[in-house]
Request: fold
Amino acid sequence: MKKRTIFLTLLLFSLFMNGCKYDFIMPVEVPPITGTVSFSTQVVPIFTAGTNCTSCHKTGGQAPDLTTANAFASIVPSMVNTATPGQSMIYTIPAPATSGHTWKKYTAGEAAIILAWITAGAKNN
Ligand code: HEC
Reply:
């Protein structure tokens, strides 16, 4: 009888401990976007910095041409959808959650900047 009590106590205790399991899923921190997103100072550097995109998407290379000189003409209006910004090709194709475009994807922060720029009208500012 005593053994059984100890066993039940341990069983209940282990169940209780399992109930206290933590989930170590770190939320992705995306800094809030404040003010107007500038195409030239915020969007273009995503494409060109460290030849992030322009190693492939360069003049005479893979379309779209994302170099500083040609990025705007290459993606506006063909790859932006200002009516439904979330459906813009320049946003969806390299988005962090897509299964395609395995060469390179935006970080969550970069994707947020691209989306905010399109939402504000995809201006050449
Ligand atoms: C290592 C080479 C490489 C890099 C780096 C790269 N891409 Fe691509 N990208 C490609 C290739 C190849 C295709 C064509 C794929 C296809 O047609 O299925 C493509 C297609 C695309 C398309 C769709 C073009 C179309 O007309 O369908 C977009 C938009 C795009 N890339 C954006 C980007 C952005 C933004 C970056 C940087 C974050 C980037 N790519 C980095 C190779 C690359």
